[in-house]
Amino acid sequence: xxxxxxxxxxxxxxxxxxxxxxxxxxxxxxxDLELYFRDRKQPQFIEPAPPDHGRIETRxxxxxxxxxxxxxxxxxxxxxxxxxxxxxxxxxKNSLDVAYGITSxxxxxxxxxxxxxxxxxHWTIENSCxxxxxxxxxxxxxxxxxxxxxxxITRLRRFAIGVIKSKGxxxxxxxxxxxxxxxxxxxxxxRMTQNSCACPSRK
Length: 203
Prior knowledge:
40% of the residues lie in helices and 21% in strands. It is an alpha+beta fold. Strands 1-5-4-3-2 form a five-stranded antiparallel sheet, with helices on both faces. A hairpin with a 5-residue loop joins strand 4 (78-88) and strand 5. The relative contact order is 0.10.
């Protein structure tokens, strides 16, 4: 399911909202956001984050509704850009990460501070998921490189991890080892057949 289809489904069918970080998979939208926010002035909100793992971080956000009717994307309530500026306490090394995004929430439903908070939560989950994928699948050394293969296999891995985490397991890695190369156990764990074990699954 593409992001456009997902956005349409969430807003129209589920009566919910979306919050997407716009990356290279939406090149047209990304280029429009980059162009609009190129000469951004003072941020609408600045959030200094407490030191984390020896790093001091400051987050800034700019939002706009001027692109709502222009962007080639359904149900845009506002667009935003976020800067994450971090300093390594030991080395003094500076880094700047810029993220563009869109959300179906209007400014009345989410002010800049709230948009920034939602994005931070998404970013935290993204980092956690990436760590799990890299640790358990050794994804950084994957030999799948052609076409949409890398993107598709990452989505499948994220989906698998999401399913396991939704069961409330204590250790994703341990559960993966239990299910590896045992299709019957997978079917029982997911209750996918009528013959699946009816007893509660062990976490």
